[in-house]
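Same chain as my last thread, 54 residues:
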Amino acid sequence: MTWRWEYVPDEETVAAGAPAEFLSEVEKKADELVRAAEALHLHGPTFQGADEGG
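reply #2:
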């Protein structure tokens, strides 16, 4: 499963001077969300539903 943003802003635009500790926590949470999405995706390791062929 892959996707991408059509607009990819640079880190400075997104962070806009936020403290490093805050940015570190945001990165950790984003990584958790990605892992959860991958695990629950059809055919992922924790998916338990019926595969509708889709």
